[in-house]
Specification:
With about 725 residues, the protein is of the alpha+beta class. The chain is built from 24 helices and ten strands. Among the domains are: about 555-660, Sandwich (Tick-borne Encephalitis virus Glycoprotein, domain 1); about 690-735, no CATH class. Strands 2, 3, 4, 5, 6 and 7 form a six-stranded antiparallel sheet that branches.
Amino acid sequence: MSIRSPLLKCSIGLAIWLFGLFIIFLMFNGTGLVHTSLYLAILILVFTTSYFISNRKNKTELSRVFIFLARLGSVYLFITVTFALLLLYYYFLSSDMSIQYVWEYSARDHPLEYKFSGVIAGMSGSLLFWIWCMVFAWFVEEIRDLRRPRRTALMGLTRSVMMIIIIIFLYFLTSRDLFKETPSSWLASRPEGYGLNPLLQTPLMIIHPPIVFLAYGFIVMGMASAFAYLICRDKKWVEISMPWSRWGWLFLTLGIGIGGLWAYVVLGWGGYWAWDPVETSSFLPWLMLTAFLHAQLMFKRKGQFSLAAPAMGIYSFVLVIFATFATRAGGLWLSVHAFGQADIEINPWDRFVDIVNSDSIILGYFILMMGMAIIGALMLIWALFKWSTSEEGQASERRPKEFLEELINDKILMFITLILISLSTIVTLLMLILSVNGVDRNQFDTRVGFFAIVGVLVLTFCMAWRYLGRRITTYLVLLTGAISVILAMLFPEHQMVAVAMPALVLAAGACGIKIVKSVNPKSLRGSINGIAPHIVHLGLVFILIGFVASNFLETEGDITLTPGGPAQKVGEYEFVMTESAIDSDSAFVTVDITKGGQDVGTGEPGAVIIDGQNRNEISVTGTPTEDIYLVFGGGSTTSAGDSFSSVDLQVKILPLMSVLWLGMWLMAAGIFMRLMAEFARPKKKIEKERIKGRSERRKALRAEKEESAEEEEETIEPEERDEDYYDDLIERELEEM
């Protein structure tokens, strides 16, 4: 039967209409919506598989029917999952305590914003939100695909992988029965609801978890398209993966940064980063995703890293699952996060067995993680043996080069970068696995710090060698290394700072040069597109500068203050208690801070009682160069009980914290600028006109660059301008046109 058959059209139309009525019927049945979403995902997978079978048998009309049904199913899947999520939000905002999940993570007297954030405070709600992020990404990709040239094999394979992951996650969700009723005994004991954990009742809770899950959902697209590429070898896979990888990287960067800020100003851990298992596990996919972005870029531009790029896309997702497993398996790692505490008297293996046996979803995460890791490895090995060792089928001819020219070029530097990031990920993962009974921060700082310092030197090469030349850049890096060694010998008590700071300052300067050189006066979009990645790199350098300074130059002390008593000194700062107040649910103390007789500010550390639990209220007084961090440690009350007669405080002086936070925002701003520049590219018709005659323009540009290179780049010696140099100049100019 032809797809143009009136009978077939009427049948499809009737099916669409009836299914629409069915969804409307289910709008207030959360369990039904979740189960319907699962069946829809299975149907989409069946239709996509049927498309491949019919297409192989040259049944073109039938294959079009199947692909149409698969796309239609994607629309319905998005609708049902969206309705399920909106229904859950409705139950929370209306404080419907008849739903057990609402009762567990909300209360009638909670402010509206904490009812909103309670939706993803538990495993089941966060799982539904994660599924929605994946379905949303796929729904957008289906719409984008309508405007592309037909690549049904690539899209079909990507759709299949996405549906398999979504089916697994929906199966996990159905096993939890998110919308089940609250037992009557629970309602009788606490009719107002159990309430959100006090540590989660902060404005940052409203922002941090959704951002992280958006990142996790978008990363799945990169993994799915990577698998599709390994099967069909369609080089256009980066058109699917790269935008979502960039969005995922943006949200994960913000998520980790906001999580650090949450720890810094709310949780009272004494800092923003402690290599805790939960935060470290979220750092692992960020590292791999960073490598994935670099590898994709080189693949898109020059066809390089054809196996490394998809491998990093696959293992970014594997590490996302590991991060989720580490977060939810709270009884396995000794962690300051409130997801369950490990009993270190029990063998770690026994703890692991108990956890996976007691929770089917945690077991499912572990099986999915191991299965994806093994399947990914097998696929990569298969591709390695199947594909030719040369990307183009023949070796490229290059003129002989000197050793330094061979060693320093974009491909080699990018290869070293990917190796460093991959090694950093592996080392961090192994250290995390081995530290189930407690984390040694110094071990993480020194071992991961080594890769960070070497990576900064490679970053300097990448930023500077085109403008300063290979030899000058090499000498400059060697000189920086010598300065680091000398400083480490002169200041043995601050060796990490002495070793790291010269390299970081050099890298910051190199990034600044690159930003200035990337400005294109003729094109705003070209300027934004050019400087965006270097702003990201500069932000990373700022974060490392702030991390090194605040961790290895901090001053710490414990003080006891009395009203009107003598000033207590920590570092160069003096602290005087001026007043205090105690009531039924809070206790605060006011502290004046001075330095050299000059007023710096006022700190107000204290504690509050939320739902019967104490929570410290941190006080951070910021200056341009340092943060004064105060943690309330309790105290003695007066006879009246309404104030303190003495207060214990923990004080930390943390240098260059403002530089660290600035670096985080620069990284986010840089990748956002890149995304906006890509979005503002000329549309298809204009793009066709732009790339028409590209080869001719390339030849003309090469000739022009070779003739005028001496005038334009006086700092680069002629013998250093190899073929890669000219190719990259041309590629850059073509990108800006």
